[in-house]
């Protein structure tokens, strides 16, 4: 009687595999916990305190004080607008140029293989090296930009390009585009290669011209790849720091101080780790909103691969 | 199978934990010690000379290994500040700029060495040098690099323009600059380091003090937005507009100024002492060797009328032992050795001594004959250093300086008037002081 009432102790095969799997995952989960989750939680805690960098332990609790201080400060919103400008212009142009290059490679003109390989070079250059290179290109006294424009007769004498905050921002964007276009081009080129030729051939037979075929066949089929490239690049561009640190150090007149650069100034130059942490979380919040917007707009069920 | 999995994962965790523990091994109390030093790339002895000094130190202290890491000046402050939040800190000895001592002392980063100084040090090192490493009567390190900005001019360009002597006032410089421009000798007669960096504050203080002004008053309140401050900044803006100052100055730090001047693209420049040897004597670095001269830093007519003979920025640095260092005694020994009279005398080629007795009698003759640069740099140092002005020793200096850098750049890029920009920066200083 009682023997029958007791459930069997042996687990089903599936359950046993799950349990073994968890055991095997435990070490890597522990690593992730230590190097990712704990610092994030610690940063969150710090952001509610007035924490100096010299002694990074939570001391004076200020609640949302750090957050409110930034949300009401002009400098913060100026940095946000600058960052949004940087993100929109650089990612927008990168997408257009990247798509153009991807289509060019896909058409397989003579030398396309060389083109595809050499495309990797700007992307493979470390950002700091890239920044140092463009800083020299923009140099007022012996920069290549001045040299090229002068020999083309576009300018009459060498110009100091980086003395205007708006020009400086746009030139930093150019440097960022040069670095990141290959990433988008490679992703889109791979996606293009996956589109069946039959679809286009059928459309061509039905009388669709090249532009219609691009707009109605290729573009919709590229959407998932575009989404991936956009999300990755937008998040990256929104957190831009290194290229700005190297080319302009935030100058002139704070004209290239983006939100990440402000976080750096706040945390390490001014030594306010608490408000720096709060800024980091504000950046995360903005990034999350942007990612959600993208997913809402572009990630429709029919796009699911 | 299940058991093997369990054992395996426990094993992996154990390996991970052992690995993590291995990273945190502590230095031994006795036996070989390693001192990690954070220094700067820009001025002072070359890395080869520093290595030679370390080798000498090792002759007397064979069980101490000294590792020196060099960074650029603009990275130094933040590198120290981040290193200090860990225990044990990444460095035992750090090179500290004059303007950071108040902040670092307030944060207890540095070892208080007031009681470790001997009588010889106290009497024979310049008082102005002790002022660098001393905050509120406590000394936090040994002065090491005594520097100021010097006025450089290209004698050949001046002669061609018809001038026999360098300007003594900034007004004179502008007039001479106009002639040099008109004759087409150089396009922009003077180059400055007005980038959004500490370098801009150095040039601003030089000009402001030459106008009879100051950054802060006796009580530490900002007064750089008074009439003198506004006039000084307005002069900077005007000099860019008239093309006497190179407009790219807004993007320059000291090295850019040196490059422009060394290419013969400027007739005047303001820079630290290190530029003399590179621009005047080093043909690999300069196209104007033999044409470079130094003169006392000019002042404004108004400053001259008020009795200011010359004014420049004091940009000195000291070596300090990190408070949390595991080997404070060994570190202090090395700092003492590095700044000792004997070593400073021997390695004076790129760094003039902080010891006053090195500038008297035979020592002075020896110092002037040390290398091709010293016959010019040593007398100039003696003449200019008394007119060098230190920046305010306030714990919020880094943040205050950033606000002032922004103000200078806002005025120079035409975003705000000089008055508005300086008023806004002064408001930030007042707020920082009240915190």
Task: Please explain how this structure is put together.
The complex is a heterodimer of chains A (305) and B (435). With 305 residues, chain A is mainly α. Chain A folds into 2 domains: 2-46, no CATH class; 74-303, MetI-like fold (Orthogonal Bundle), CATH 1.10.3720. Chain A has helices spanning 2-5, 13-46, 65-71, 74-106, 112-118, 120-124, 127-137, 144-151, 165-193, 197-205, 210-238, 242-247, 259-269, 273-298; strands at 49-50, 60-61. Chain A has a two-stranded antiparallel sheet. In chain A, helix 4 (74-106) runs parallel beside helix 9 (165-193), helix 9 crosses helix 11 (210-238) and helix 13 runs antiparallel to helix 14. Chain B has helices spanning 2-23, 47-60, 73-83, 101-106, 119-124, 127-133, 155-161, 170-182, 198-210, 227-241, 254-262, 274-281, 301-305, 328-338, 341-346, 361-368, 374-384, 397-412, 418-434; strands spanning 33-40, 64-71, 93-97, 134-135, 138-139, 142-145, 150-154, 190-191, 268-271, 292-295, 312-313, 317-321, 388-389. In chain B, a hairpin with a 2-residue loop joins strand 4 and strand 5 (138-139). Chain B is globular and about 70 Å long. Chain B has 2 domains: 33-147 and 314-389, 3-Layer(aba) Sandwich (D-Maltodextrin-Binding Protein, domain 2); 150-313 and 396-434, D-Maltodextrin-Binding Protein, domain 2. Mean pLDDT of chain B is 89; it is low at 16-29. At the A-B interface, helix 2 and helix 13 of A face helix 1, helix 3, helix 11 and helix 18 of B.
Defining key terms:
heterodimer; A: 305 residues; MetI-like fold; 2 domains; two-stranded antiparallel sheet; 2 strands; B: 435 residues; alpha/beta; D-Maltodextrin-Binding Protein, domain 2; four-stranded mixed β-sheet; 19 helices; globular
């Amino acid at each position: 009687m009682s023997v029958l009432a007791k459930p069997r102790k042996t687990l089903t095969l599936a359950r046993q595999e799950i349990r073994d799997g968890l055991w095997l995952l435990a070490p890597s989960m522990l690593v992730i916990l230590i190097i990712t989750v704990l610092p994030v939680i610690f940063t969150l805690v710090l952001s509610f305190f007035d924490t100096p960098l010299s002694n990074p332990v939570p001391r004076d609790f200020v609640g949302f004080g750090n957050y409110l201080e930034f949300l009401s400060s002009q400098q913060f919103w100026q940095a946000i607008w600058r960052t949004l400008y940087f993100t929109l212009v650089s990612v927008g142009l990168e997408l257009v140029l990247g798509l153009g290059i991807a289509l060019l490679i896909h058409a397989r003109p003579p030398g396309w293989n060389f083109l595809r390989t050499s495309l990797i070079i700007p992307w493979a250059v470390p950002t700091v090296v890239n920044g140092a290179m463009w800083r020299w290109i923009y140099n007022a006294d012996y920069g290549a930009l001045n040299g090229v424009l002068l020999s083309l007769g576009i300018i009459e004498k060498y110009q100091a390009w980086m003395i205007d905050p708006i020009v400086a921002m746009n030139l930093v964007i150019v440097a960022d585009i040069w670095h990141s276009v290959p990433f988008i081009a490679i992703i889109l080129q791979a996606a293009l290669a996956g589109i069946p030729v039959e679809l286009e051939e059928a459309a061509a037979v039905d009388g669709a011209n090249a532009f219609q075929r691009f707009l109605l066949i290729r573009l919709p089929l590229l959407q998932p790849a575009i989404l991936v490239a956009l999300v990755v690049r937008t998040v990256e561009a929104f957190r831009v720091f290194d290229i700005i640190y190297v080319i302009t150090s935030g100058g002139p007149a704070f004209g290239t101080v983006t939100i990440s650069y402000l976080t750096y100034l706040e945390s390490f130059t001014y030594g306010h780790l608490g408000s720096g942490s709060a800024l980091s979380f504000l950046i995360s919040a903005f990034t999350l909103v942007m990612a959600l917007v993208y997913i809402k707009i572009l990630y429709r069920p029919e796009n699911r691969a | 199978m299940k058991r093997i999995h369990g054992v395996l994962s426990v094993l992996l965790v154990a390996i991970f934990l052992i690995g993590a523990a291995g990273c945190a091994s502590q230095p031994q109390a006795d036996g070989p010690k390693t001192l990690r030093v954070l220094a700067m790339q820009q001025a002072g002895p070359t890395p080869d000379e520093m290595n030679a000094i370390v080798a000498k130190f090792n002759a007397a202290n064979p069980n101490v290994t000294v590792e020196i890491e060099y960074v650029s000046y603009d990275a130094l402050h933040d590198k120290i500040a981040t290193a200090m939040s860990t225990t044990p800190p990444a460095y035992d000895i750090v090179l500290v700029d004059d303007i950071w001592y108040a902040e670092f002392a307030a944060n207890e980063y540095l070892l208080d060495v007031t009681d470790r100084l001997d009588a010889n040090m106290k009497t024979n090192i310049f008082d102005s040098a002790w002022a660098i490493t001393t905050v509120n009567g406590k000394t936090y390190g040994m002065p090491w690099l005594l520097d100021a900005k010097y006025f450089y001019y290209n004698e050949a360009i001046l002669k061609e323009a018809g001038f026999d002597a360098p300007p003594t006032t900034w007004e004179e410089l502008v007039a001479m600059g106009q002639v040099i421009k008109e004759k087409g000798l150089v396009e922009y007669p003077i180059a400055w380091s007005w980038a959004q960096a500490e370098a801009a504050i150095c040039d601003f203080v030089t000009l402001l003090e030459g106008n009879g002004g100051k950054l802060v008053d006796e009580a530490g309140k900002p007064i750089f937005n008074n009439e003198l401050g506004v006039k000084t900044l307005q002069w900077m803006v005007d000099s860019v507009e008239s093309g006497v100052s190179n407009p790219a100055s807004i993007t320059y730090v000291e090295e850019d100024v040196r490059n422009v001047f060394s290419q013969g693209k400027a007739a005047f420049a303001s820079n630290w002492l290190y530029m003399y040897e590179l621009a005047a004597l080093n043909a690999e670095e300069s196209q104007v060797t033999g044409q470079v001269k130094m003169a006392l830093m000019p002042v404004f007519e108004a400053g001259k009328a008020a009795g200011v003979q010359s004014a420049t920025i004091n940009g000195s640095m000291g070596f300090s032992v990190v408070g949390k260092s595991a080997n404070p005694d060994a570190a202090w020994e090395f700092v003492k050795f590095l700044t000792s009279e004997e070593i400073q005398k021997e390695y004076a080629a790129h760094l003039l001594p902080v010891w006053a007795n090195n500038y008297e009698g035979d020592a002075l003759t020896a110092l002037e004959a040390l290398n091709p640069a010293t016959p010019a740099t040593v007398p100039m140092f003696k003449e200019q250093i008394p007119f060098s002005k230190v920046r305010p020793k306030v714990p919020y200096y880094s943040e205050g300086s950033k606000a002032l850098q922004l103000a200078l750049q806002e005025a120079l890029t035409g975003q705000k008037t000089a008055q508005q920009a300086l008023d806004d920066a002064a408001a930030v200083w007042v707020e920082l002081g009240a915190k």
